[in-house]
Amino acid sequence: MQESVKKPLVQTVDLTKSFGELEVLKGITVTVDEGEKVVVIGPSGSGKSTFLRCLNLLETPTSGSVFFEGNELTHTSDLEEHRKKMGMVFQHFNLFPHLTVLKNITLAPVTARLQERKKKKLKISRRQIVAEETARAKKLLARIGLEDKALAYPATLSGGQKQRIAIVRSLAMNPKVMLFDEPTSALDPEMVGEVLSLMKELADEGMTMIVVTHEMRFAREVATRVLFMDEGKIAADGTPQEIFDRPKDERLQSFLSKVL
Prior knowledge:
Low-confidence stretches: none
Structural class: alpha/beta
Distance between the termini: 42 Å
Strand content: 15-25%
Radius of gyration: 19 Å
Number of strands: 10
């Protein structure tokens, strides 16, 4: 029986990013296949978050290319269509404070479906689209045990609740890949576990994930692959065992001695 071939989902080729005179990314070439859980670690200022933000062009690369499902994003006229398939979760939740939890989750999928209805001239009412997306949002809230918060506003929630809602808001778009930019770094220690637990569930279900984090235990337990970034380059790329148990790079050894 033939093994299923994994498809490259996200690729960068010789990616660079400078802010003025400061060169933050120095020629990064990486391929992430469907189903991989890639965790990016490294010291502060090594370019991890900039790298992640370049993947969906929240930061425009200075040079090099970013590909998603084989399409070059750096020169596409259809960037928004590709971005819909790339969920992004930030450090600081980025929920809309003036909208209820339910509206936060349904806003993007309802808007996307209304645009699709107009483009394809589909015979479906706005009311039906809103009803369907509201039902999906409630299921997602039930999944994380927060269905009772559907009509609450973000200001009334704990940090852990906000971040879990930010994650399911991304899931509401049925993304092909989830990008996490230090999703637990703004949380109180007791709230970190509930967010990491949801991320582990997604990983177990086969979601492709690229995660920038300082949570080394999560990296060791969940990652299929770990990238160590240092001074704008990928200094090491391997399995959790290779990175944590048999580190060859001197800078990686020094970094791990401080964080483990």
